[in-house]
Specification:
single chain; globular; alpha+beta; 24% helix; Protein Transport Mog1p, Chain A; 8-stranded antiparallel β-sheet; 8 strands
Length: 199
């Protein structure tokens, strides 16, 4: 049976970490790897997202389930009806895999609680999995509290003022390609969210 609390717990943990944040300790990349479609990891990425043009995820605060389109979801798997919720960081939408023991579950959160992207970076940099990335041209960070296998969260900075959204994934099937490097999966799907924010 799938751990249905995994994604909300990840968001809650991020909020707890952020609560004690300090801008005096900026995050630093601890690992660099190559990425597949939609993402490129760049060591020491520090540029402002405003160079690519600010996006506004908060316009989806009352409709977070529209941040991924049906056609995009059909390319990711088979899902149950999306479920929206209001979490500690902001409004979210979860797409549970139709077969939870086989597929991948995704959750996107529109961060509206005032937390800035640098705060999140500072407070997740010591997690076992932490890597800076570039998602569709925007600065991002992927992290996980264990080994990045089966769970990961990717935060994408989409405004020069530190505004961001969070894309999380959970995979139960150890034979799934999404399981081995779940952060690569969250980065790929986060790129789809960026594409929709531009639309």
């Amino acid at each position: 049976m799938m751990r249905r609390t995994t994604l909300p717990v990840l968001a809650a943990a991020a909020a707890i970490l952020i609560a004690g944040c300090s801008e005096k300790s900026p995050g630093r990349p601890s690992s660099v790897a190559t990425a597949d479609s939609g993402t490129t990891r760049t060591p020491g990425t520090t540029g402002s997202s405003s160079a690519k043009g600010d996006l506004n995820p908060e316009r989806y605060a009352d409709k977070p389930c529209e941040l991924l389109k049906p056609a995009q979801l059909s390319g990711l798997g088979s899902f149950k009806a999306p479920e929206s919720d209001k979490g500690v960081l902001g409004p979210s939408c979860t797409w549970y895999a139709q077969k939870v023991l086989e597929g991948t579950t995704y959750e996107v959160t529109v961060v509206t609680d005032g937390t800035r992207f640098p705060d999140m970076v500072s407070n997740t940099k010591d997690e076992p999995v932490f890597r800076e990335a570039e998602v569709a041209g925007y600065r991002a960070v992927s992290s996980d509290g264990t080994d990045g296998k089966g769970n990961c969260g990717t935060s994408v900075e989409v405004t020069g003022a530190g505004g961001w959204f969070l894309l999380q994934a959970s995979v139960e099937n150890k034979k799934s390609p999404d399981y081995t490097d779940t952060c690569a999966t969250t980065e790929k799907v986060a790129a789809l969210v960026v594409q929709n924010l531009k639309g």
